[in-house]
Amino acid sequence: MSAAFLFPGQGSQYVGMGAALYRASAEARMFCDRADAQLGYALTQLCFEGPEAELNLTTFTQPAVFVVALAMWQALKATLPQPAFVAGHSLGEFMALVAAGALDFEAGLHLVAERGRLMARAGEAASGGMAVLLGATLEDAAALCTAAAAASGQPVAVANDNCPGQVVISGALTALEAAMTLAPAHHVRRIQRLPVSVAPHSVLMAGVQATFAQLLTTVPLHTPQIPVVLNATATPETDVEVIRQALVRQLTSPVRWRESILWMAAQGVDHFIEIGPRDVLTGMLKRTLPAARAEAVDKMGFWA
């Protein structure tokens, strides 16, 4: 049996996440307290108590999910199997790099906090959003985006290829409205807007890519001790410069998650462990690989 660790992204957050973990684990408390000190505000209090509206702001969501997921990893890593690969969904890629030894916790937290601010700034400059398509193939989703962009004159594109029957699109608000109207004609069973005010993994993030690329040059990256399956390529990588470029590219390119899971399964991985709040990735995995063993540590009662 071969295992892989999966780290979730934005959208997995909830008020109360990490609170029981913080009480139960000295290792987790250390990570959370270091994060509060580095950020200069009480991130852990926001995770534990809310308010929900503030926790859901991109600027705070990204460091919050990052810290809680890595606190879980720190608390459990001595008892977990050695993974053959690690991967993270969007934001989760930064947690995967920390778990692989490629990125220090403090450096990763700095990157994630700045990434959240930059994405929020891009959202203020060009209003955008996301929508999930259910019952659609990747080809259906791409065709819908082409039609909606043509109808609206604004960009929209596939952002996340999550699992069979679930694709997320991202782009300008007028283009998303066009997609809502055109969806039935493109074999989409259901389309639903997501509660986000930015358009990750779309061209609307292009305006902050150069700034983020410059920031990445100031942060040390190390050769991963475990191969990291990247969102941008759906293949593993250990070359530091390739990883750095992929993190920049990830802002505007789609998350090839379904392909990443299938690639790991083809290498013999049959045990996937989701480390982070909720069990969003576990649900996707069961739709992609129904026979695989999938576990979400947040649902396993370690800290009850």
Describe the structure using short key phrases:
alpha/beta; 13 helices; Alpha-Beta Plaits; 6-stranded mixed beta sheet; 304 residues; 4-stranded antiparallel beta sheet; 2 domains; Malonyl-Coenzyme A Acyl Carrier Protein, domain 2
Question: How are the SSEs ordered, and which strands pair?
Answer:
Blueprint: E1 2-7, H1 19-24, H2 26-39, H3 43-49, H4 52-55, H5 58-76, E2 85-88, H6 92-99, H7 105-125, E3 128-134, H8 138-152, E4 156-163, E5 166-172, H9 173-182, E6 190-193, H10 209-217, E7 228-229, E8 236-237, H11 240-249, H12 257-266, E9 269-274, H13 280-288, E10 293-296
Parallel strand pairs: 1-2, 1-9, 2-7, 9-10
Antiparallel strand pairs: 3-5, 3-6, 4-5, 7-8
